[in-house]
Amino acid sequence: MTGPAPRDRLIVALDLPSVADAERLVSTLGDTVGFYKIGYQLAFAGGLDLARELKAAGKSVFLDMKLLDIDNTVAKGVESVAAMGVDMLTVHAYPKAMAAAVEAAQGSALTLLGVTVLTSMDDHDLSDAGYHDSADALVLKRARQAREAGMGGIVCSAAEAEAVRDVIGHDMAVVTPGIRPAGADTGDQKRVVMPADAIAAGASHLVVGRPVSAASDPQAAAAAIVADIAGALTAS
Fold first, then answer.
1. Residue 123 to residues 120, 134, 137, 156: CA-CA distances in angstroms?
2. What pTM was estimated for this model as a whole?
């Protein structure tokens, strides 16, 4: 088995309304989980300070900010995030934004992830937004552009991970949200995959939110996902 250990491939999304809620979940999960995602909801409720605290406690942190703006603004944002010492940061996979981000992150350990197509979107949603490509085609186009820009990885649905690997090779991270264990509610996700299937398809990291945070026993739910990941890696 190469790459991160199974425990380090599960990223639990702290999509919670307060830092206190997030701290309780982190405490409950203990050593079962070592990687956390902080997105808009928690970031705007004090989550950036929590990100620093998690790093100080030896955890890995993924800031899901999906940056997109003029080049200078993206670059300055990336510089600030890199100075925080977090592990991953998302940038929308537009070529100019990615180029600015990559230049700004040089010399740091920050892994930049290009967001291809949100897993809550399907072909109809893209058409409504003015895109002519299907979700599958747009994901592959943006994955190719992310590789050419020098990004550290991409974010896509696990349903597209195998095709994406054919485009980007095996050196980049493939981070897949929309992961749902068997029997879990799909919620607002439209392109979902089970943990073992995502790893088998080429995902390097799985982002899981409600199936852990809303579980009656979050630690057991996370441990089951880590076991699924380990089984898939052993079988591969």
1. 11, 5, 10, 14
2. 0.92
For 102-161, write each residue's pLDDT tens digit: 999 999 999 999 999 887 888 999 999 999 989 889 999 999 999 999 999 999 988 889
Q: Give the residue numbers marked as catalytic.
A: 66
Asked whether 235 and 200 are in contact (CB, 8 A), the reply is: yes
CA distances from 199 to 48, 166, 179 (A): 29, 15, 11
- Give the whole-angstrom CA distance, residue 233 versus residue 171: 17
Q: Rounded distance, CA 212 to CA 79, Å?
A: 32
SS3 annotation, 41-60: HHHHHHHHHHHHHHHHCCCE
Task: Report which residue type is found at 35.
Answer: F
Q: Would you report the helix, strand and coil content of the chain in percent, each value rounded to 5?
A: 50, 15, 30
Q: DSSP letter at 193?
A: B
Sequence-distant (≥ 6) Cβ neighbours of residue 124 within 8 angstroms: none
Cβ atoms 165, 147 nearer than 8 A: no
